[in-house]
Amino acid sequence: MAEPTVRLVDWQEDQVAEAVSMAGRGGAILVVCLLLIYIMRLSLSGSSLVFAEVALGLAALVGGIFMVTSLLRLGKVKARKGIPFRCPYCEGLNQLLTKPTTNFDCEHCRRQIHFENGVLAPLKTVVCTGCQAEHKVWVGADKMVCDRCNHVMDLKQAEAPNEFKPQTPSIFPGGMLLGGPNQSVSIVGCDASRTDQLALLLQREMKGTTAAELRTMLQTVSESAPLVVAYDIPIGDADSLADSLRQLGAKLRLEEVH
After folding, report:
1. What is the rounded CA–CA span in Å between residue 146 and residue 174?
2. What is the pLDDT of residues 80-91, one digit of tens each?
3. Long-range Cβ contacts of 164-170 (<8 Å, 24+ apart)
4. What are the backbone angles phi and psi of residue 173, rounded to the nearest 5°?
5. Which backbone phi and psi does 186 adopt, to 5 degrees?
6. The three-state (H, E, C) secondary structure of 13-28, written as one string
């Protein structure tokens, strides 16, 4: 089984957290031992005092070793060089701990970079049907979210031959095309503390779109820039979807489609 690809910044954060924790434990041991030595000198004398000082001194030495070791570890972590890998989507340079062979998220655009059998998966170029912007997309993606207008493109539908391809009106920049007439459901605001949960709900309907992309989209929604999550669907389906979204703190706008 292939080893997971680890970004250098993530590895450094973990290592720094562990080193700081070790330094904290070492410092606590050192301080407690020195304090106990001071107290022992006030209450003991002779061989008992000597024994206590030796024992506590050794314990204090261990605490000091913990602190020195953590400082040395921090230095090594800071000096660690990463393996550069340029994102095929945004051209941002990622620093990785090892040569990438498995999927990972770009630290710049947050899109997932896909690998197949340890090799970068092939890409294709798609044109947004909302704003005509060009995007590079993994060939296995089902959907694509335009980072310019938030329009969601059904890539599988676009590839199907001799098939009717309905277009979302331009007044609705993006959304999940669920089919059926009557209503559209748009998100015009959301509870910032529940963005992660809302993104996970939307991700189930938008395969190929990462939770990070959806969180970014949800952070920019407003009355003037809504995110359409369903367009031209039956009223019953719209109400059911709206109830699920409202339970996660979404502020919605439902409109009839003529």
Report:
1. 8
2. 999 999 998 888
3. 166/232, 167/129, 168/129, 168/130, 168/228, 168/231, 170/130
4. -75, 80
5. -125, 140
6. HHHHHHHHHHHHHHHH
What tokens appear for 153 in the block?
């493109």
The model's pLDDT over 120-160, given as tens digits with 9 standing for 90+, comes to 889 888 888 878 888 888 888 888 888 778 788 887 755 54
Rounded to an integer, what distance in angstroms lies between the CA atom of residue 100 and that of residue 201? 29
Reading the block at residue 111, the tokens are: 């899109």
Backbone phi and psi for residue 240, each to the nearest 5 degrees, phi listed first: -65, -45
The tokens 């031992």 sit on which residue? 33
Distance CA 53, CA 41 (A): 9
pTM as predicted: 0.49
Q: What number is the average pLDDT over the span 177-183?
A: 54
Over its C-alpha atoms, the chain yields an Rg (Å, rounded) of 28
